[in-house]
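User: I'm putting together a teaching handout on how sequence relates to shape, and I'd like one worked example. Could you take Radical SAM protein from Streptomyces kunmingensis, show the sequence you're using, and then write out its predicted structure as tokens right after it?

Assistant: Happy to. First the sequence, then the structure tokens directly below it.
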Amino acid sequence: MRDATGAPALRVSQVLGPVTALGPGRRLGLWVQGCPLACAGCMSRHTWDPAGGHDVSVERLARVWRRGLADGYDGLTVSGGEPLEQAQALAALLDTADQVRRDAGRADADLLVYTGWEEPEIAASPAASLALRHADAVITGRYRAGEPTRLVWRGSANQRLTPRTGLGRRRYGPHLDRRTDHPELQVQVTQDAVHIIGVPRPGELSSLARDLTARGLTFQENTWRP
């Protein structure tokens, strides 16, 4: 995808930071728009429609990433939606993000991508493989609501965290089998929405919604129910 000037662009749902529930440290979180996988129980149904969201140039996203690095962010997490549905634009984003971190003297800031694609599907797609060449780690696999897990940063037991670079192995190696009894969920409030960030266990979103309602926050709609 390209913007009106012909520059590489992604269809984006939202960009938020700092994010602390989707990877190690304080991170920039980018959610792409559009997902044909439509996993049952997905908490981000609002990212499914490819006509939703808005086009954002890679150049503009690079500026946001650069500011995040200057503020001490430890990494970039790309989720969705399905990032590999925009493989060419994702390749441009990660290529640029890699260059930005090097120019900023922050080669220690990692790039993490969530995808519902399985590893064999990625390996069979030259475009997907190219898109992920600068990713330090990838979390792969469809979300399966019937297979809950306590593995950190993963929504279901089938999903795999795979380091792909030396930085990825150093940063994510200690977490491959790490489990937690209390997965972290973030709540960020913007002008028109309350954003719940993280990987919840079954029932946690409804419980959180009830708690917020009891505190006087009324939901007109949410993103995890049809």
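A couple of points you could highlight for students: Helices lie at 58-70, 87-103, 119-123, 126-131, 166-172, 204-214. Residues 87-103 form the longest helix (17 residues).
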